[in-house]
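Q: Here's a chain of 239 amino acids. Please give me its 3D structure as tokens.
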Amino acid sequence: MERIGALAHPFEALFDAVPDTVFFMKDAEGRYTSVNQTLVQRLGCRGKAELIGCTACDVFPAPLGARILAQDRQIAAGGRPLHSVLELHLYPGGAEGWCLTWKEPVRDAAGRIAGLAGLSRDLQTRAEEPSAYAGISAALAHIRDHLDGSLKLGDVARLAGLSDWQFDQRLRSLFGVSAAQYITRARIDLALSRLRGTSDPISQIALDCGYADQTSFTRQFRKSVGLTPHAYRAQFSRE
């Protein structure tokens, strides 16, 4: 894990100064190799050294710790990264709060996944109760789990317990995009991960990302990324 350790220190210093964002890096087994001061304070530790070498199960209560560790190991095993995942976390004193989490695999010089890096940013819920985001979280999880199929906004909004308009407004507030744009972005994010991490045919990736054919997938991909899927994969391989 020397690669992760070597990268950790400048990012630690940067994110130590951001009190509403947790930063971490972990090895392929889900053990912390780098953390920022925010995470140290959230967990009531005396210093960063207490967390290094621990997994989420060691420092978070059940079932939260087990869920985080399973998530980490899935990414390290070649699963797709997480982008803007709405999650409920515990804070000092047992308070619950919502955050948006990003996790990306970190690869070594040979291209193998050596661990992961991640961020969790607090949501400013003001006077809202933690339950205010529970329905949204369930709806977004449904989207992530069904990107290969037909996703009707009305059905997804009902999972959140909201009208179509309310669900759209919530996503605009959280992510700065409409509900339809959020689904498109999630599909393109999955495609990017598959193009970088697998040699699967582009036609198969198109189907797995919810596109009826490669032509419509290529059109949307070029509009979103500025390159065709083939050109993106070739550029990533060169880099």
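Q: Can you summarize the key feature?
A: The chain is about 50% helix and 20% strand.
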